[in-house]
């Protein structure tokens, strides 16, 4: 019985580590707010049953010239070009876009990340079919998955990961900490250590995930 219990706890700990590592990797690698440059994110408007498609800023190559910036990326084998005109305060005030040489709609959808303005743009009427948009979504699935999950559910995932870590710590403390030869005193000290360690880990986990989501732009 003891061996099965130990195996189960180790198995659950392994699952937690794998899930946490994957979640951390996807979130950090697709951070919205830490890339330098004039663009934080570009999205293609929803068409039919296909949701809005987010494009990461890293795929755009930008060239600054006088009062405007031109950024280009390849979407489905054709160039998407954004021309951003800056205002007197060096803030983007207008966006023009072409796809494969044809003019398409471009809307500035800035959002605040702390004290910083993040530059996001939506492209309309690009002319891609739902199947093509789905292909673009699959190519950048990590970012689109995180945006589909949304801020509230991301925070819930962080909360339950913290709770799981606290529960594992509580189990470890209960079964592996012996601080007194007295059974009653040992019971009390184990309870105290269990409460402090598990609650501390839950609190630290919540703080960690809050900082993570704020710094990566998936919460504001």
Walkthrough of the structure:
The protein is α+β, with helices and mostly antiparallel strands and 220 residues long. Helix content is 49%, strand content 25%. It has helices spanning 2-29, 130-139, 141-176, 183-216; strands at 41-44, 53-56, 61-65, 68-75, 78-86, 92-99, 102-108, 111-113, 116-118, 120-124. The strands form 2 sheets. The chain has an 8-stranded mixed β-sheet. It has a two-stranded antiparallel sheet with strand order 8-9. Strand 1 (41-44) and strand 2 (53-56) form a beta hairpin.
Please describe the topology of this protein:
Elements: H1 2-29, E1 41-44, E2 53-56, E3 61-65, E4 68-75, E5 78-86, E6 92-99, E7 102-108, E8 111-113, E9 116-118, E10 120-124, H2 130-139, H3 141-176, H4 183-216
Parallel strand pairs: 1-10
Antiparallel strand pairs: 1-2, 3-4, 4-5, 5-6, 6-7, 7-10, 8-9
Helix pairs in contact: 1-3, 3-4
